[in-house]
Amino acid sequence: MATGVAHETRAPAPSEDHGGTGSARRSLPWMVPLGAALLLGVFIPLVYAALSGNLGIPHNDTWAFGRSAEDFVHTGHVRMYNWNMMGLAGLVVVAWPVGASLAAQSVFIAVLAVAGLLACYDVLAGALGPAGRRRAAFGTLLVALWPGFTLLSTSFMTDIPAFTAIAATLAFGRRALDRLSLPWLAAACAAGLWGATVREQVLAAPAAILAVALFRARFRADRFPTFRIPHILGLGALLLAATGLFELWRRKVPGGAAPDLTVRKVTAELVSVEMVQGLLIVALAVSPAVFAMVRPRRWSWPAWTAAVATVAAGLLVSEDKGAFLGNYVNHDGAYSAASAAGRPILLGSGWWMALACVAYASAALLVGSVVDRVRTEGWGLRLRPELLLFAVATVVGTLMEIGGGADIYDRYLIPMAIPVLALVLSEPLPSPRALRAPRRIAPIAVAAGMVTITGATLTVNAFTFDMAVWNTASRIVASGQAGAEHVDAGLVWDGYHSPTAMSDHADRSVDRDYFGALRYLPNHFPCYVVSPSPRVAAGWSLVSVQHYKTYGFIGDAALYVFRVGGSQTCS
After folding, report:
1. In sequence order, what are the residues at sequence separation of 6 or more whose Cβ sits closer than 8 angstroms to the Cβ of residue 181?
2. Looking at the whole model, is its pTM more than 0.70?
3. 335, 328 contact by CB (below 8 A)
4. Checking DSSP bridges between strand 528-531 and strand 487-488, what pairing results, if any?
5. CA 93, 94, 97 angle in degrees (round to 5)?
6. What's the rounded mean pLDDT across residues 530-549?
7. 3-class DSSP state for residue 230?
8. Which tens digit of pLDDT belongs to each residue from 310-341?
9. Which of 361, 513, 364 has the alpha carbon at shortest distance from 444?
10. In whole angstroms, what is the distance from residue 479 CA to residue 471 CA?
11. Which of 25, 386, 446 is nearest to 192 (CA)?
């Protein structure tokens, strides 16, 4: 952490205006990718969700979060549904003006996504310097193209609000540290505190800012102007006290617990596997930047050794557990575990093998680059210290969560793209001639294309599948054959219409033939089942087959509607 002050940590960036003269011409190179980030990451998926009817239905965990927001509007009290492992309440309260409508909730998240991407750009631009605006915009575009970001930016999940809070905290914190501004420091803590009431992991960002400020005040006061230590300690104490009080209150909120989704023993192998999978999903998302900027020709042998070891670890993990953490980046569709097994493999198995290879190569270059930079630049990595501390805190926190038995999903790691991109994009900029060379442009184009296609496919497929399930279950209810609470159409439908909150079944040996009816909704008695699989359980009889398009407009897939024999009351 010896690289404490801003001008010591900001990488020198060569001019990126290759020929432009006027201010409008100079601004165009960074405005185009930033505008593309907003279009591709938020506006286009929002329009598609609206036109396809997806804004008005819940997706993934929004069945619980959206219901909590609706309840808060109608009752003025925070109530949850035993399906959240994070604060959440801060999002429910802030969304009060739009909480009564699922569509309005989704638009509210889209607004936060725009703010988050703009804050992300600001953080990267601050890390790369005035001449790095185009690279910062390019990095922001890669964040927007993260597979699953478009689904998250159009649904009432906690991931986008947490990402936005982190990006805003880091943006405010940079101004506070560079300008020695106590108001900016307070703003960073306030943004981090609100984020922590949505998801506790956000605390890593204000903690990093305060740690850097305290370090400078303690060890650099004789060389540079710094904050006064009592001010820093006071803000830190207020942050901890407010977080502690919130957590004490949250534990008393009705339905604030979460069922244990998995029965697994935490082992060193499990922790290692999930950390490698986390590295691979981050490396995949930033792979175009890695392939564009990282040049391993002059690496030392420790860097090459680390790169080879990374590939070997990725191959070992993928052979048994799959390359990525999963939840949104799944070969059978985003959050496919929320429905019965049987959804078709998207894009073919060969596509996912190729995608994993892109992740292996990117992860190897990324790890090798870090090792080589430690050798040449020291442990500060020529990165702004608050970004480095945030990354370290996030990695350590993720290790602790895995070690504690918590499930870690790919979407949790989106904020890690900010420090990783700041690191990668601070590499010396290759010449335009070098960037246009086929051997460099080809991997960049392949990686960017595969990441974009994967994200678009996951989004369109999720919207199509969710809408098909919702419409099929709604038709059963509209026909008068069963009430909504007696139709098992997967987690989202079951949870949204359940008369009671989720709970874990007392008998942990109970299996899940169809998602909600047996395990997590013990008071849910289905008369009809809507499943993507033709597999029939005992007592079921096939009623109809409903067809839908796998990729929105092309591809054939089906939903199977079963009548459950022996059902009693169905309305």
Report:
1. 175
2. yes
3. yes
4. parallel
5. 95
6. 91
7. helix
8. 999 999 998 878 899 989 999 999 999 888 88
9. 361
10. 12
11. 386
| Helix, strand, or coil (residue 328) | coil
What distance in Å separates the CA atoms of residue 123 and residue 203, rounded to the nearest whole number?
Answer: 17
523 pLDDT tier (thresholds 50, 70, 90): low
Is 141:178 a contact under the CB 8 Å cutoff? no
Handedness of CA 285, 290, 292, 293 (dihedral sign): positive
Hey, what amino acid is at 75? T
Q: How confident is the model at residue 87 (pLDDT cuts 50, 70, 90)?
A: confident
Q: Which of 273 and 260 is assigned the larger pLDDT?
A: 273
Q: Which two tokens stand for residue 542?
A: 């096939």
Distant-in-sequence contacts of 2-8, Cβ < 8 A, 24+ apart: 2/378, 2/380, 3/378, 3/380, 3/382, 3/383, 3/385, 4/212, 4/215, 4/216, 4/219, 4/220, 4/224, 4/385, 5/216, 5/220, 5/224, 6/174, 6/177, 6/178, 6/384
Q: Is residue 176 very low, low, confident or very high in pLDDT (cuts 50, 70, 90)?
A: very high
| Sheet with strand 528-531: strands edge to edge | 487-488, 528-531, 556-564, 540-549
* 454: nearest Cα among 322, 359, 343, 314: 359
User: Which tens digits make up the pLDDT trace of 383-441?
Assistant: 999 999 999 999 999 999 888 888 899 999 999 999 999 999 998 877 677 667 777 89
Q: What is the DSSP string of 500-553?
A: S-----S-TT---SSHIIIII-TT---SEEEESS----TTEEEEEEEEEETTSS
Question: What are the start-end ranges of the H helices in 16-158?
Answer: 23-38, 44-51, 62-75, 89-94, 102-128, 133-144, 149-152
